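Reviewers of the previous submission asked for a worked example of the structure-prediction workflow described in the proposal, so we include one complete record here. The input consisted solely of the amino acid sequence. No template or homolog information was supplied to the procedure at any stage.
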Amino acid sequence: MIFNINKSNLYYSPALAVIANGIDIGHVHPLGDTLIYNATGRIDQLKKIIHCEESLIELISFLNSYRKQHGYIALCIDDYMSGIVQLKSISFWTNLGFIYSCDNPKLLYLLD
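From that input alone, the workflow returned the following structure tokens.
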């Protein structure tokens, strides 16, 4: 799977589109020292990626690499709109290094 991050007029600035094999699967935007990923765009395509654990791990790895390259301390998956976090078990996410926000279980954080 080929991932990239591009400017898009679909999202407000400074949000950037996350593209998987040419299809918009969400956007990232900074919030302080945290990079936030929101699954928007083609949710149907994103759900296909999520059901294939290997592809989902590739996506997380790509987002985490982008986070590190741009100096963010944390990667946050915001699950409000898509419900993608709920499609996998808590143990799946924690095995990837994510922690749940105590204040909001729909947010996952990956820290260094």
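The longest helix spans residues 53-69. We consider this example representative of the routine output the project will generate in years two and three.
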